[in-house]
Input
Amino acid sequence: MASKPNLFHSLVLFIILVAFFLLGMIYQQRKIVREEKELASVKERLKTMSMLEPDVGDSMRELQPAMAKLWYANKYKNYPLALYEVKEIKEIVETVEVLKPVVNSVDVAMVLSNMVNTPVADMETALRRHDDKKFIKSYAQTISTCNACHQMTGFGFNRIIVPTAPPVVNQDWRPATSAIRAKSKTK
Output
């Protein structure tokens, strides 16, 4: 008789264990469903964000006016502004490096990285030393790099030159101290 209660207790214990196992399975299944919904939501957000991601053309449309502003900042000896534009150019190139574009078998990020490491770095040094000759030479090398890349990637019709007019008309290119002196003279 003593074995019947042990069998009963074992059966109850087995049923309880099975119930816990089933509850655990249900919990896990619900957790998986929630995670799948979250994953689908993240995938949808990534899809939307990838459509907003800049492409190489967007970056080039930012780079071109930065180069022109750099030219005019140096022309008017506004070295802080010129150095700021060099920083902007480097940031634009960093964006392209993240995108890792290859256009017609040309690693555009590598070309731009080399450009930043040589002629742009030389321009920055020239600006810090107020060396116009070195700046002009490095600026020309940078433009040459741009045009060579355009040729290699099939965009040779897009030729960059030294700017002949300021890229914007609502910016005073002179250093801040010159602008302040000019205003005080007109009063």
Observations:
- The first helix runs from residue 3 to 52.
- The beta strands are 102-103, 106-107.
